[in-house]
Every structure is written in C-alpha cells, then in structure tokens.
Amino acid sequence: MGGSKRLMEEIEARGASFIGDRYVCAFCLEDSALKAFVRENVSRYRCDYCGRRRPSVKADEVVELIVEGLRTEYEDPNNVMGWDSGEGKPSVSARPTVLLTVRRPR
User: Fold this and answer.
1) What is the pTM of this model?
2) How far apart are the C-alpha atoms of 39 and 42, rounded to whole Å?
C-alpha cells in the first residue's frame, strides 16, 4: 500500500475529513521547509487556497510530509515513558501540539 493511501486510511480512522483533490502553493504556507517542498515538487500551476496561478502541489502530499516529520520527531509515549506500576499508566502525560496555518480554500 502506498504512503498516501495509508495516510488517508489513518486520517479517516481518526474521524478527520480528508483533503481530497486540492492543491496548495508555497505562498499559502508559513513553514520554510514546506515552502521548499512545494517549490521542488510542483505538479500544477493553480492554488485552490488563494486562487492564484502559482506553482502548487497536492495538499495531501504536504500533509504526508508533515505526518512523516511528526513520526520522526515524536515517538509513541508508550514506547519511551516510564510506567507507574501501581496503576499501569504512564507516569507523565505527553501530547505534542502542532499548529499549522493554511489559507482557507476559495
């Protein structure tokens, strides 16, 4: 199974809506690594978020890049945290928060 299909299944399993066939340009993203990704992987010249004719990539590809980055940066707390033997729960609660700014589609 391809990475995009696996990602789609993960997103749908969590109850989130899938992006679908939308394209995003570097102008609509704030992160420099995501902007570089768009510039290096252009697949269309029309952004669905700002409506302008700019080099764009499928938004799903950007989401996949973000998910891979999170997987690289964060591990499952169950694999790395100490356990409180009395209750069988992690001794510390760790939940990374990620905020992304993307323009709304027109």
Assistant:
1) 0.58
2) 6
Cβ within 8 Å of residue 87, ≥6 positions away: none
37-59 residue pLDDT tens: 999 999 999 999 999 999 999 99
Give whole-number Cα distances, 83 to 29, 76, 96, in Å: 39, 13, 19
Q: Which range has the worst mean pLDDT, 32-36, 43-47, 80-84?
A: 80-84
Q: What's the CA angle centered on 36, arms 39 and 71, to 5 degrees? A: 125
Nearest to 106 by CA among 53, 49, 55, 56: 49
Contact predicate 34/65, CB 8 Å: yes
